């Protein structure tokens, strides 16, 4: 008995073991393959995602002869869930070639199965296709002026990392004051970079290579800690008249610090100024009243009471002297020879440059905001106007003083005493002596 295992035309030869010249060979024996017992599947070692390639399936019998009479139906599956595979197919003379497309980068396989016989290909190294889009990973929030990390990744059309991407990426932002990475390349299709946003609010960062572009999700940028104040004050004021000043807390990037919780202390170049008491801000800002009393160029400064480095000074405020006003004279009658000391009380009298009685200049002994002490000049008898001139203007008390020529009588001195008494009472009422 003899058993032939290889399909095709075969022969059997008998040879004398002692004399090889004595031999004989059979007629050709047509050996057919047995029933299919297994498959082979031929696939490329590597492929590009999205690019079709050819696979070949062959049915073999137990002796690896092509099972040409195999008539089963083969179903294809793959480790790549995104693959495009041949439909259920039959073989012709035990073999068949088909087209398949893998889309997921990495090591993938294809399996052919007819329900009883199955074969899985060797691993196929699937590489990503050319980059078609980017992703950009950024934090949901950031503090103004604080650096954070962003990651840009290039992907092909099947969302595989395009590890061979070689483009150059340029960064822009909705924040015109941002510090962004320079033009950059990716390594293995991805790269991490540092960025700093400075403008509070919702901001974005965009990465583009000229043909592919991606914009991040909104980044909520919060103001940093307060670094300085700004003080909005009018450019001019009148001495003694209140003005409104606004104080705002800003961080180092000039964002309003809405959560500033410090206490503000006010000072001024005007030592006589009436300033607000120490105060806090609401949502980073506050409005207050201040009164400057000294004419000239003045400023108002706000300083954090717990951190003197946080401060701000207003622009120059041109303070004009207030117009003077005369309230009383300590004496209202005097000799035509002059020489009488008279105290004029009123408001805004500081810096008086001229006091006249009936047009004749008196000698100014002293002056402050509420009083002027003068020595009366010589003047003809009669009631005269008293005029005070200050940087803020002119005040006139009509017929406020009477010059007399005769030697005072007892009744005159009584009148003088009465005048002194009334003047003293008026002075006390005005907060004087």
Quick structural summary:
The chain is mainly β. The strands form 13 sheets. The protein has a five-stranded mixed sheet, with no helix packed on it. A four-stranded antiparallel sheet has the order 9-8-12-13, with no helix packed on it. It has a four-stranded antiparallel sheet with strand order 33-35-39-38, with helices on one face.
Overview of the molecule:
This protein is mainly beta and 433 residues long. 5% of the residues lie in helices and 46% in strands. The chain has one helix and 41 strands. The chain has a five-stranded mixed sheet, with no helix packed on it. A four-stranded antiparallel sheet has the order 9-8-12-13, with no helix packed on it. A hairpin with a 7-residue loop joins strand 2 (13-15) and strand 3 (23-25). The protein starts with 7 loop residues before the first strand and ends with a helix. The mean pLDDT is 93.
User: Regions with pLDDT < 50 over 5+ consecutive residues?
Assistant: none
Helix content: under 10%
Described by strand count, sense and barrel closure, the largest sheet is:
5 strands, mixed
| Morphology | rod-shaped
- How many beta-strand segments? 41
Strand order of the largest sheet: 34-41-40-36-37
Rounded to an integer, what's the Rg over CA atoms? 53 Å
Span between N and C termini?
Answer: 151 Å
- Write down the overall mean pLDDT: 93
Number of helices: 1
What is the percentage of strand-forming residues? over 45%
Structural class: mainly beta
